[in-house]
Amino acid sequence: MKDNTKKRFITGAILFVVFASVIMLTLKVHWVFFDILIFLLALMAAYEICNAIRQKYPAPMRVFVYSAIVLGYVAYIIAQRVFDIGIGGITMYFAVLLVLSMTMIIFSLCSKKATTNNVIATMFVFLYPVSALLYTLGINHFEPHIRAVGILLLFTVSTFTDMFAYFVGSTVKGKKLCPKISPNKTVSGAIGGLLGGIAAGAIWYFVSLTELGAFLGMAPLLGGSSLEWLAYLSVGLFGSLATQFGDLFASYVKRLVGIKDYSHLLPGHGGIMDRIDGLMFNGVILYFALAVISIL
User: Fold this and answer.
1) Average pLDDT for residues 150-176, to the nearest whole number?
2) Where would you tag: which of 41, 43, 208, 222 has the fewest CB atoms within 10 A of its CB?
3) What's residue 269's pLDDT?
4) Is the four-CA dihedral 127, 129, 130, 135 of positive or negative sign?
5) How far is CA 136 from the centre of its chain?
6) Stated pTM of the model
7) What is the Cα 200 distance to its own chain's centre?
8) pLDDT at residue 87 is higher than 70
C-alpha cells in the first residue's frame, strides 16, 4: 500500500509539473501548447478506450477513430484560426465526423470483417472521449482573457473536486453514493467535491483582482459586473458536478468491459482516461458556460 501511495504521489507530482508548464507556456508564449496537449491526450485516451471496449465487445475501427482526431483538429483550426468563423471550428469538426461516419458505414457494408457492432463501437469512441475533448480544446480558442480564466478553471476545478472528495469522503465516510458503479465513493465525498469546485472558483475570482491575475491574462468575465463572483462560483459548482459525473461514467464503462484501470501508463493512477475522465466533462460544461459569458 505504501509503495502504491509513493508511486501515486510521484506520478501526481510529474503530472502537475507537466500541466502547470503547459498552462504557463499557453498563457505567456503561444496558444498552440495547449492544443498539442489536448491533441495528444485525445490520441492516448482513444487508444485506451478502444482497447477497453475490445475486451468484451466488438472492437472500434481505429483508423476511423484516429482520422476523426487528426482531420477533425485540422478542420477545427482552419475554421477557427485561419478563417475566424466564430463557432465554425465546432461545426467543421462535426462535419468531418459526419463524413467519416458515412464512409465507415459504407466500408462496413462492403467489408467481410467489419460489422454494424464495430460501427457502433467506433461511434461511441467518436463521442467519448474524442468529441468531449474537442470542447475542452475549444476553451483555448476564446478571447484571450476568457481563455485564460477557462484554462485555469479547467484544471483547478477538476483537481480540487478530486482532492476534496477524497479527503472528505475518507474522513467522514457514511452512505455510499453509487455502490453498483463505484463502491468507494460516498455522499460525503461528493459534497466535499462540490465544495472543492466552489473553492477553486472562489480562489481564481480573488486572484483575478490582483496583479497575478493580470500577469496570467485574466480580466473581468462580466465586464466588472457586481455578479462577477457569482460567475466564478457557478462555474466551480457546475464544473465539479460535471467532473464527478465524468468519473462515475468512466467507472461505469470500466465495469461494463470488466477492467480496473484503462491502462498502466501512469503508475499509481492507471491510464490517461483514469486521470482525465472528469476533466473532459468539466471541459464540456466550461466551454458552454464561457460561450454564454462571451456573448453577454
Assistant:
1) 93
2) 222
3) 84
4) positive
5) 6
6) 0.93
7) 17
8) no
